[in-house]
Amino acid sequence: MSAREEILARIGKAVSGAADVEIPRHYRTAQQVEDIVGLFAERVDDYRAIVHVLPAAEVPAKIDEAVAGRRMVVPDGFDREGGWADLDTADGVITSCAVAIAETGTIVLDHGPGQGTRAQTLVPDYHLCVVRADQIVAGVPEAIARLDPARPLTWISGPSATSDIELNRVEGVHGPRTLEVIIST
Questions:
Q1: What CATH number does the domain containing 51 carry?
Q2: How many CB atoms lie within 10 A of CB 17?
Q3: Dist CA 111 CA 88 (whole Å)
Q4: Which three-class secondary structure string do you get for 34-86?
Q5: How far apart are CA 43 and CA 78, in angstroms?
Q6: Do the domain assignments include residue 16?
Protein backbone atom coordinates (compact mmCIF):
# COMPACT_ATOMS: atom_id res chain seq x y z
CA MET A 1 0.00 0.00 0.00
CA SER A 2 1.37 3.43 -0.97
CA ALA A 3 1.48 6.32 1.48
CA ARG A 4 -1.35 7.98 -0.41
CA GLU A 5 -3.56 4.90 -0.19
CA GLU A 6 -2.74 4.53 3.51
CA ILE A 7 -3.71 8.14 4.26
CA LEU A 8 -6.96 7.84 2.31
CA ALA A 9 -7.78 4.60 4.12
CA ARG A 10 -7.25 6.28 7.50
CA ILE A 11 -9.47 9.20 6.51
CA GLY A 12 -12.16 6.81 5.26
CA LYS A 13 -12.06 4.90 8.56
CA ALA A 14 -12.19 8.10 10.61
CA VAL A 15 -15.29 9.47 8.85
CA SER A 16 -17.11 6.20 8.40
CA GLY A 17 -20.54 6.38 9.98
CA ALA A 18 -20.38 10.14 10.47
CA ALA A 19 -23.57 12.04 9.72
CA ASP A 20 -23.79 14.07 6.53
CA VAL A 21 -23.57 17.74 7.36
CA GLU A 22 -25.42 20.35 5.34
CA ILE A 23 -23.15 23.32 4.83
CA PRO A 24 -25.22 26.44 4.28
CA ARG A 25 -24.10 28.52 1.33
CA HIS A 26 -25.52 32.00 1.28
CA TYR A 27 -23.85 33.36 -1.80
CA ARG A 28 -24.92 36.62 -3.29
CA THR A 29 -26.54 35.68 -6.60
CA ALA A 30 -27.72 39.12 -7.67
CA GLN A 31 -26.99 42.72 -6.88
CA GLN A 32 -28.50 46.04 -7.73
CA VAL A 33 -26.46 48.50 -9.77
CA GLU A 34 -27.94 51.89 -10.61
CA ASP A 35 -26.00 52.46 -13.83
CA ILE A 36 -24.92 49.01 -15.01
CA VAL A 37 -23.70 50.27 -18.41
CA GLY A 38 -21.72 53.08 -16.79
CA LEU A 39 -20.11 50.74 -14.27
CA PHE A 40 -19.17 48.24 -16.98
CA ALA A 41 -17.68 51.02 -19.16
CA GLU A 42 -15.70 52.36 -16.19
CA ARG A 43 -14.31 48.94 -15.27
CA VAL A 44 -13.39 48.07 -18.87
CA ASP A 45 -11.63 51.43 -19.14
CA ASP A 46 -9.71 50.61 -15.93
CA TYR A 47 -8.19 47.67 -17.84
CA ARG A 48 -6.78 50.03 -20.49
CA ALA A 49 -9.36 49.09 -23.10
CA ILE A 50 -10.81 51.66 -25.48
CA VAL A 51 -14.50 52.09 -24.61
CA HIS A 52 -17.40 53.72 -26.46
CA VAL A 53 -20.98 53.91 -25.15
CA LEU A 54 -23.27 54.65 -28.08
CA PRO A 55 -26.91 54.49 -29.08
CA ALA A 56 -27.55 51.40 -31.25
CA ALA A 57 -28.10 53.57 -34.34
CA GLU A 58 -24.53 54.92 -34.10
CA VAL A 59 -22.80 51.55 -33.68
CA PRO A 60 -22.38 50.67 -37.41
CA ALA A 61 -20.60 53.98 -38.10
CA LYS A 62 -18.31 53.49 -35.08
CA ILE A 63 -17.48 49.97 -36.27
CA ASP A 64 -16.62 51.36 -39.72
CA GLU A 65 -14.38 53.96 -38.11
CA ALA A 66 -12.68 51.45 -35.79
CA VAL A 67 -11.89 48.89 -38.50
CA ALA A 68 -10.94 51.35 -41.26
CA GLY A 69 -7.66 50.24 -42.80
CA ARG A 70 -7.54 47.00 -40.82
CA ARG A 71 -7.81 43.48 -42.21
CA MET A 72 -10.42 41.96 -39.92
CA VAL A 73 -11.57 38.44 -39.10
CA VAL A 74 -15.35 38.44 -38.91
CA PRO A 75 -16.74 35.26 -37.33
CA ASP A 76 -19.73 33.41 -38.69
CA GLY A 77 -22.90 34.90 -37.29
CA PHE A 78 -21.59 38.45 -36.90
CA ASP A 79 -23.89 40.69 -38.91
CA ARG A 80 -21.33 42.54 -41.00
CA GLU A 81 -20.39 42.75 -44.66
CA GLY A 82 -17.11 43.77 -46.25
CA GLY A 83 -13.70 42.56 -47.38
CA TRP A 84 -12.35 40.55 -44.49
CA ALA A 85 -9.16 38.64 -43.79
CA ASP A 86 -8.33 35.12 -42.79
CA LEU A 87 -6.56 34.43 -39.50
CA ASP A 88 -3.06 34.34 -41.05
CA THR A 89 -3.31 37.85 -42.50
CA ALA A 90 -5.64 39.54 -40.01
CA ASP A 91 -4.86 42.70 -38.08
CA GLY A 92 -7.85 42.18 -35.82
CA VAL A 93 -11.11 40.44 -35.02
CA ILE A 94 -14.60 41.81 -34.43
CA THR A 95 -17.00 39.88 -32.20
CA SER A 96 -20.10 40.05 -30.12
CA CYS A 97 -20.17 38.40 -26.68
CA ALA A 98 -22.27 36.02 -24.60
CA VAL A 99 -22.35 38.19 -21.49
CA ALA A 100 -20.48 41.09 -19.88
CA ILE A 101 -19.94 41.66 -16.16
CA ALA A 102 -20.19 45.21 -14.80
CA GLU A 103 -18.56 44.56 -11.42
CA THR A 104 -15.38 43.13 -12.96
CA GLY A 105 -15.33 44.71 -16.43
CA THR A 106 -15.14 41.23 -17.91
CA ILE A 107 -16.42 40.10 -21.30
CA VAL A 108 -17.29 36.42 -21.70
CA LEU A 109 -17.31 34.67 -25.06
CA ASP A 110 -18.92 31.24 -25.40
CA HIS A 111 -17.83 31.11 -29.05
CA GLY A 112 -21.40 30.96 -30.30
CA PRO A 113 -22.60 32.85 -33.40
CA GLY A 114 -20.71 36.10 -33.92
CA GLN A 115 -18.09 35.29 -31.30
CA GLY A 116 -15.58 33.32 -33.35
CA THR A 117 -13.26 30.53 -32.34
CA ARG A 118 -10.71 30.82 -29.55
CA ALA A 119 -7.94 31.16 -32.15
CA GLN A 120 -9.82 33.94 -33.94
CA THR A 121 -10.13 35.90 -30.70
CA LEU A 122 -6.62 35.28 -29.35
CA VAL A 123 -4.30 35.42 -32.39
CA PRO A 124 -4.98 38.88 -33.91
CA ASP A 125 -3.38 41.87 -32.21
CA TYR A 126 -6.64 43.87 -32.07
CA HIS A 127 -10.08 42.82 -30.78
CA LEU A 128 -13.21 44.91 -31.31
CA CYS A 129 -16.08 43.59 -29.21
CA VAL A 130 -19.64 44.86 -29.54
CA VAL A 131 -21.62 44.48 -26.31
CA ARG A 132 -25.36 45.15 -26.17
CA ALA A 133 -26.58 46.81 -22.96
CA ASP A 134 -28.94 43.86 -22.32
CA GLN A 135 -25.93 41.52 -22.22
CA ILE A 136 -24.43 43.30 -19.20
CA VAL A 137 -25.10 41.80 -15.78
CA ALA A 138 -24.08 43.19 -12.42
CA GLY A 139 -21.91 40.36 -11.08
CA VAL A 140 -20.23 37.03 -11.74
CA PRO A 141 -23.04 34.85 -10.29
CA GLU A 142 -25.51 36.38 -12.75
CA ALA A 143 -23.08 35.78 -15.62
CA ILE A 144 -22.58 32.15 -14.60
CA ALA A 145 -26.36 31.67 -14.59
CA ARG A 146 -26.52 32.82 -18.23
CA LEU A 147 -23.68 30.61 -19.46
CA ASP A 148 -23.69 26.99 -20.60
CA PRO A 149 -20.83 25.20 -18.79
CA ALA A 150 -20.55 22.72 -21.66
CA ARG A 151 -19.47 25.49 -24.06
CA PRO A 152 -15.88 26.73 -24.36
CA LEU A 153 -15.64 29.99 -22.43
CA THR A 154 -13.12 32.79 -22.85
CA TRP A 155 -13.14 35.42 -20.12
CA ILE A 156 -11.61 38.73 -21.22
CA SER A 157 -10.64 41.41 -18.72
CA GLY A 158 -8.83 43.99 -20.82
CA PRO A 159 -6.07 43.59 -23.38
CA SER A 160 -3.73 40.66 -22.91
CA ALA A 161 -0.98 41.66 -20.49
CA THR A 162 1.70 40.17 -18.32
CA SER A 163 4.73 41.47 -16.42
CA ASP A 164 8.32 40.38 -16.62
CA ILE A 165 10.49 39.71 -13.57
CA GLU A 166 11.18 43.43 -13.19
CA LEU A 167 7.40 44.12 -13.25
CA ASN A 168 7.51 45.80 -16.65
CA ARG A 169 4.09 45.42 -18.25
CA VAL A 170 4.10 43.63 -21.60
CA GLU A 171 0.90 43.61 -23.65
CA GLY A 172 -0.16 41.22 -26.39
CA VAL A 173 1.68 38.11 -25.23
CA HIS A 174 -1.32 35.80 -24.74
CA GLY A 175 -3.91 37.56 -26.87
CA PRO A 176 -4.77 40.91 -28.44
CA ARG A 177 -2.63 43.88 -27.43
CA THR A 178 -5.56 46.24 -28.02
CA LEU A 179 -9.14 45.71 -26.86
CA GLU A 180 -11.80 48.11 -28.07
CA VAL A 181 -15.34 47.77 -26.75
CA ILE A 182 -18.46 49.33 -28.23
CA ILE A 183 -21.38 49.25 -25.81
CA SER A 184 -24.66 49.54 -27.71
CA THR A 185 -27.42 51.18 -25.66
A1: 3.40.50.10420
A2: 6
A3: 19
A4: CCHHHHHHHHHHHCCCEEEEECHHHHHHHHHHHHCCCCEECCCCCCCCCCCCC
A5: 25
A6: no
**Residue 43 CA: distances (Å) to CA of 10, 13, 184:** 49, 50, 16
| Nearest-angstrom CA–CA distance, 181 and 178 | 10
CA distance 59 to 182: 7
Q: What are the backbone dihedrals phi and psi of residue 149, each rounded to the nearest 5 degrees, phi first?
A: -65, -10
**Residue-range definition of the domain harbouring residue 75:** 30-184
Q: What would the pLDDT profile of 28-48 be if each residue is shown by its tens digit?
A: 777 888 999 999 999 999 988
First-to-last CA distance in the chain? 63
Domain count, the chain: 1
Which pLDDT tens digit goes with each residue over 12-21?
999 988 888 8
Q: Looking at the domain assignment, is residue 68 inside a domain?
A: yes
What would the pLDDT profile of 95-123 be if each residue is shown by its tens digit? Answer: 999 999 999 999 999 999 999 999 999 88
Domain assignment of residue 9, yes or no: no
Q: What is the pTM of this model?
A: 0.81
